[in-house]
Each structure stands twice: as structure tokens, then as C-alpha cells.
């Protein structure tokens, strides 16, 4: 008997694996008519109570019952762990509980977003939902099994960032249930990873050509006094560096945003009017850095816009949001 969501006065029993949940039919009828109907037609009983056996994990049934009995209302979804959202989506779709599906879907979208700007801001949702990198495997299986194709491409992208051994051998859910990818999915991820490496290498090559001093460079006026323009040195470093996130591009993570942060650190946002104020500063002006940011933004946007094709799911994505 489950020790968390079972009631001694319950008038029905749900069995998931070897775990019994003693519940009330009226509660099931209100929240999950499908399960309630299964109880009504069940030929099995235990202690005079109707029994329904389900193929769901005890964890998934437990999380549904917590919602049904009010201890874990769907409104807490913004703070619910990924494991709970995944359980809601699985049982919600299987048993036609649309409210549960809607709350799960909206919050899973914050982890597998449809826009590049949301992707860059995913740290907050990852923390709120206790999302771990390896959860991408469970997510990919979940989205395929439940037909949530709009989040497939980001789930595959996340899987591409995992250690190859994890991709091949799988992981476990929060309740210990093994979670493995099909051989086909492992192959999809391997191909996508190679394409992403190609895109990353292309971005590095293009940046060497496209990063240039702005024609509106604020510091160009000082070059006659100091024989240099700091923007030129900074841009040369940005073109040539192999670190600060660009190594991630090369390894198959062209959406890594650390290079943008490095650009921010390379900028001097002050406007110098006196050459003696400028003499010792080696940062780049905001005009030059804005143009470099724009170049990086265009390259990252191209990857994002082509992501469904890169990871091999363009045929099932109808409403992918392109980034301008």
C-alpha cells in the first residue's frame, strides 16, 4: 500500500506495478473519468473493493493523485520539478486530463522553448524545475510518445550536448525507472551532433571574416595620438580566440552564448572626450562591439532557424518560430 497517497476509507484500488493506491471513486470521477470508468467495468476486486491495474509507474500515478487530492495543484507547475511535469504529461494525455496536460506543457516549454531569446534565458526555468542535462533523454522519449513534436528539436539539441556514453546507455528517471533512447534516436543524435559541429566550425570561420571595426568607431580619432586603436586589438582577439565559448561551437554547441558574454566584457561603454582619459584603456567602443554582437546574433539565429532541419525533424515541425 502506498504510504503517501492512500486513504483507509477509500472505496477503490489502483495498482501500479506492485504498489496499491486506495482511493475514492468520486475523486477519480471528478478528475479522471477514464480511470473511474475502468474501475466501474473491472472484474477484479480486493477486500470487496474494485481494482484497476495500470501500466503507469507508481511515481506517475502518485503525482496525478497528489493533484486530484489537492496536495499538489496544477497551479504550482511553475515550481514543479521536471519529473513531476513529465508525469503530468504522460498520465494527462493517456487518461485525457487536459488541464494537467496544459499546465505541464506550458512549463515544459520554458525548458524546450520555441525562440532563441527564451533559450538564452533558460537558466531560470532549469533551476525552478530542477532540470538536469541528462533529463533531455526522458524529455525526448516523452515528446515522441505523447506527440509533442513542437519541443522535439530542442530536446534533440540538448541530447547532442550529453556525453556520448550517456546517449548510448541512457539514464534513470527521478523514481529510478530506466530511460533509454531507441537505436534510431541514438543515430539521429549522432548525425545531428556532426551537423552542429559543421555549423559551429562555419561560425568560427565566418567570424574571422565578419568581425571588423565599425565605420562609426568612437575611438578611431585617438589613433593619431597613440599609434593604435584599442578596438582593432579587441576585434583581432575576438576573431582569433579559441576559448570563451567558441570551443563549444567547434564541439557541436553553436548556440552556446558565452562568447556574447565575452564580447560584453571586452567593451568599454564610456565615451572618451579627452585623449588623456583614453590613453590607458584597451577596451573596445560600444559601436564596434554592437556590430560584432550583431554578427554573432545573425550566425546564432541562422542555426536556430534551421534547427529542425539540422536535427532531422523538419517534417514534423509546422510552427517553428524563426529568429530575426
UniProtKB/TrEMBL annotation:
Residue stretches making up the BTB domain: 11-104
One of the Pfam families matching this protein, by short name: BTB
InterPro entries, per the entry: BTB/POZ_dom, SKP1/BTB/POZ_sf
Protein name: BTB domain-containing protein
Amino acid at each position: 500500500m502506498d504510504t503517501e497517497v492512500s486513504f483507509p476509507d477509500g472505496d477503490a484500488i489502483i495498482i501500479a506495478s506492485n504498489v496499491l493506491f486506495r482511493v475514492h471513486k468520486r475523486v477519480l470521477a471528478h478528475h479522471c473519468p477514464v480511470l473511474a470508468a475502468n474501475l466501474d467495468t473491472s472484474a477484479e476486486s480486493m477486500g470487496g473493493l474494485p481494482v484497476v491495474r495500470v501500466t503507469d509507474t507508481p511515481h506517475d500515478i502518485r503525482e496525478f493523485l497528489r493533484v486530484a487530492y489537492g496536495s499538489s495543484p496544477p497551479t504550482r507547475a511553475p515550481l514543479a520539478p521536471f519529473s513531476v511535469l513529465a508525469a503530468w504529461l504522460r498520465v494527462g494525455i493517456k487518461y485525457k486530463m487536459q488541464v494537467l496536460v496544459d499546465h505541464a506543457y506550458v512549463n515544459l516549454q520554458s525548458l524546450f522553448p520555441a525562440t532563441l531569446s527564451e533559450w538564452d534565458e533558460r537558466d531560470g526555468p532549469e533551476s525552478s524545475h530542477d532540470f538536469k542535462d541528462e533529463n533531455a533523454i526522458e524529455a525526448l522519449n516523452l515528446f515522441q510518445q505523447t506527440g509533442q513534436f513542437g519541443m522535439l528539436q530542442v530536446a534533440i539539441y540538448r541530447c547532442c550536448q550529453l556525453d556520448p556514453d550517456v546517449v548510448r546507455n541512457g539514464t534513470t528517471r527521478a523514481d529510478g525507472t530506466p530511460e533509454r533512447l531507441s537505436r534510431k534516436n541514438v543515430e539521429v543524435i549522432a548525425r545531428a551532433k556532426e551537423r552542429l559541429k559543421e555549423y559551429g566550425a562555419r561560425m568560427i570561420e565566418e567570424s574571422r571574416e565578419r568581425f571588423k571595426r565599425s565605420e562609426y568607431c568612437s575611438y578611431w580619432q585617438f589613433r593619431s595620438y597613440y599609434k593604435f586603436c584599442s578596438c582593432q586589438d579587441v576585434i583581432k582577439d575576438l576573431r582569433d580566440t579559441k576559448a570563451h565559448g567558441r570551443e563549444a561551437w567547434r564541439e557541436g554547441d553553436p548556440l552556446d552564448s558565452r562568447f556574447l558574454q565575452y564580447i560584453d566584457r571586452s567593451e568599454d561603454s564610456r565615451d572618451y572626450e579627452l585623449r588623456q582619459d583614453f590613453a590607458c584603456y584597451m577596451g573596445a567602443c560600444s559601436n564596434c562591439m554592437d556590430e560584432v554582437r550583431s554578427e554573432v546574433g545573425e550566425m546564432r539565429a541562422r542555426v536556430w532557424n534551421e534547427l529542425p532541419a539540422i536535427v532531422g525533424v523538419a517534417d514534423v515541425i509546422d510552427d517553428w518560430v524563426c529568429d530575426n
